[in-house]
Design a protein that fits this description.
This protein is about 35% helix and about 20% strand. It is α+β, with helices and mostly antiparallel strands and about 700 residues long. Bound molecules: 2-(butylsulfanyl)adenosine. The site of 2-(butylsulfanyl)adenosine has 15 residues, from strand 3 and strand 8.
């Protein structure tokens, strides 16, 4: 080949062949494997380019061109079903501006021979659901077969799976045609999709083989519908909207309009979208397109556009079809919810709970109606499974108010050999160790108290009633203190002075005094409350109490080995490791030392091994109001004596301690024959336990 001085690009014939090959490949990925590599918008672009070449050079058209047929292959394992009435597609108006509706109306009027003085045409405006088309066959009102669209002529039998869809009636009562095919869209709601992917990510983290997350709700729905095992379909919640019909025999009362058909389907129990609107003329269609476009994000499911249909069935008949598309309907699109862009960098963000999330920084791209520059990669496992690397061309999805995400990579577009993504071993915000626990998907920063990203959360946790209890230190105040930079770590709280507090917005003298008094009061606490307040992952109130009882002293807890921690009641390997990691962070130890230096203190006691545990193995339930003790105090005393305090009465309960106004728990205890005692008897048990 001679070098080209004037590079004219490939010839139309070469380009058409190339496009055909690409479209074949992508149609197979999409229809047969349910695993597309490129967004629909990209597929449409390639498809249109081929259509244009073929229109300009009809001699290049081939019988096997993807433009000559719609749809994909039939999987061998599902039985083929021939549609008595073919399942058509509709012409798509890709113009996302209002003019799409205007152009459609003008075409319809021209075809019908209507002039300017003729009245507007009645249309039915519907949503264009982004799922997969389904034909449901009812004989004598009973669902006998469900089939996918397939290539429009022949679909696949998926009755076993469709029966799992609660929204689809298994039988219709009333005057129903002897044969009735209801057509509509099977789809997955966005919340169901997010929950499904969350479950999948957990399975992958737990080491399940062969599991994957799904690219988008439509894909998840398509995959679910085409399962051979309907048990799998059932775990993937699907929904349905009816919008059309196929073969109908023995209809005694055929409707005259699209609208009447939908109302009838609705009356028979099929879901019909409430947004469906009768529109007179182009202006009403334009208004519908705009109204739905503005509400699109709030819908619980994906739509990729709206559909306009001539309402009168008589006019529909008159208009007829061009090849396989009706002249009486058009789909009018919205901006695509998936697009291609490139990854500029992969950052790691730290959330309020310490969760580390890899985030792809993207070349700005317009997706689902907004410009997106960041997309989540969820966690390290996902980022590595999708193998996203800096410089890659990726598919980005943004739908509804869900955070944009990178759904897949186009490996063939990768340049060079950029390194795979790895999670940093240290928190990018505070430098503490970042760890992923076994069986968990997420990495977490272990610098809880010290990490800037977790500051507010850590302070609120420490200040709560069941921890060290700083009265009046709530959401709003913590927000102000942290945002103004006055409080960076927990000990800063105890260094607050009146001037600093009064400088805050809307802080009166009296409230500032109250906050200082509450801080002073909180300094006298217990080891258990203090340990709980530190916010060590997996250390809840009960574990904190167990630790305090077992070790008696903070330094003993801080220096305990995993083995020593495992000796504590109810502490397993995950909890032990978490405590160990927490106290291995120099920052966390520093915060603890500073809190002590600020005057936070408690009575340290002898380790539990030497303290008596008179009520070990006994279960108590507390109910009503006691004469001298608060509920919490009673609970603390019982637990210190080794008892368990449960929330409800069962046969395993040893004692119910009842105060005044004891309610249903007392009744239940009496019914089960559980011993009922009062506060005094409880105190006596703690000091002079009975045998047995
Ligand atoms: S009517 C003859 N109405 O879009 C008209 N289709 O290309 C038959 N779709 O495969 C289709 N929402 O999966 C119709 N309200 C709606 C629709 C809708 C989504 C899908 C359907 C079909 C494709 C048409």
């Amino acid at each position: 080949m001679t070098p080209d001085l004037f590079d004219a690009g490939p010839s139309p014939a070469d380009r058409a062949a190339e496009l055909r090959a690409q479209l074949h490949h992508h149609a197979y990925r999409y229809y047969t494997l349910d695993e597309p590599e490129i967004p629909d918008a990209e597929y449409d672009r390639l498809f249109r380019e081929l259509q244009e070449i073929e229109a300009a050079h009809p001699e290049l058209q081939t019988p096997d061109s993807p433009t000559q047929r719609v749809g994909g292959a039939v999987l061998k394992a599902l039985a083929p079903v021939r549609h008595m009435v073919p399942m058509l597609s509709i012409r798509t108006e890709t113009d996302t501006e209002a003019s799409g509706a205007v152009a459609f109306d003008a075409r319809v009027r021209r075809e019908l021979g209507l002039g300017d003085s003729d009245p507007p045409v009645d249309y039915l405006a519907e949503l264009k659901f982004d799922g997969l088309a389904m034909s449901l066959r009812y004989e004598q009102g009973v669902l006998v077969r469900a089939a996918t669209r397939g290539d429009g002529e022949t679909g696949e039998e998926v009755t076993h799976n469709v029966r799992t869809i609660g929204q689809i009636p298994l039988r219709i009562d009333g005057a129903v045609p002897a044969v009735l095919e209801v057509r509509g869209e099977v789809y997955m709601r966005r919340d169901d999709f997010e929950a499904l992917n969350e479950r999948q990510r957990a399975r992958i983290a737990a080491g399940a083989k062969g599991e994957k997350t799904f690219v988008n709700p439509r894909n998840a729905a398509a995959g679910a519908v085409r399962q051979l095992d309907s048990g799998i379909t059932r775990e993937r919640p699907l929904s349905f909207f009816a919008y059309s019909w196929g073969e109908v025999l023995g209809d005694e009362n055929p409707p005259a309009t699209q609208f009447d058909w939908l109302m009838r389907l609705k009356a028979w129990g099929f879901p019909v979208a409430e947004q469906t609107t009768l529109c007179q003329g182009a202006d009403a269609l334009v208004a519908f397109h705009q109204r739905i476009g503005a509400a699109r994000d709030q819908l619980p499911y994906d739509i990729d556009g709206v559909v306009y249909k001539v309402n009168s069935l008589a006019l529909q008949k008159q208009l007829g079809f061009v090849t396989r598309e009706p002249r009486w309907a058009v789909a009018h699109k919205y901006p695509a919810q998936e697009q291609l862009t490139t990854v500029l960098a992969i950052d790691v963000q730290v959330g309020r709970t310490g969760k580390l999330t890899p985030v792809a920084k993207l070349a700005p791209v317009f997706v689902g109606g907004v410009t997106v520059t960041n997309a989540t990669l969820h966690n390290e496992l996902e980022a590595r499974r999708k193998d996203v690397r800096v410089g890659d061309t990726v598919v980005v999805r943004r739908a509804g108010d869900v955070i944009p995400e990178v759904v897949s990579v186009l490996p063939e577009k990768r340049l060079g050999d950029p390194p795979p993504f790895t999670m940093p071993s240290q928190c990018p915000v505070c430098g503490s160790a970042a760890v992923r626990e076994e069986g968990e998907a997420d990495h977490r920063c272990t610098g809880g108290l010290f990490c800037g990203a977790q500051r507010k959360q850590a302070i609120l946790h420490f200040a709560q009633r069941r921890a060290v209890e700083i009265e009046g230190l709530g959401d709003k105040l913590v927000e102000q203190l942290v945002d103004s930079g006055v409080v960076k770590t927990l000990p800063d709280l105890y260094r607050l002075g009146l001037t600093a507090l009064l400088a805050l917005d809307r802080m009166a003298d009296k409230s500032a005094q109250n906050v200082l008094a509450a801080l002073e009061k909180s300094k006298q606490t217990t080891l258990a409350r203090f340990l709980f307040g530190l916010g060590i992952r997996h250390v809840g109130e009960a574990t904190a109490k167990d630790l305090a009882r077992h070790f008696g002293q903070l330094d003993a807890v801080m220096d305990a080995s995993v083995e020593q921690l495992l000796e504590v009641n109810d502490v397993g390997p995950v909890v032990a490791q978490s405590i160990r990691t927490f106290f291995e962070q120099p920052h966390n130890r520093e915060v603890v030392e500073q809190l002590r230096a600020c005057g936070v203190h408690w009575d340290e006691s002898e380790p539990e091994a030497r303290a008596p545990k008179p009520l070990a193995g006994k279960t108590f339930v507390l109910t009503g109001t006691f004469p001298t003790l608060s509920r919490d105090q009673a609970k603390d005393l019982l637990e210190a004596a080794g008892a368990k305090v449960a929330g409800s009465v069962s046969k395993k309960t040893d004692y119910v301690v009842a105060g005044t106004e004891a309610g249903s728990k007392l009744e239940k205890a009496q019914a089960l024959g559980v011993a009922v005692i009062d506060e005094a008897a409880m105190l006596a048990l703690i000091t002079h336990p009975l045998d047995g």
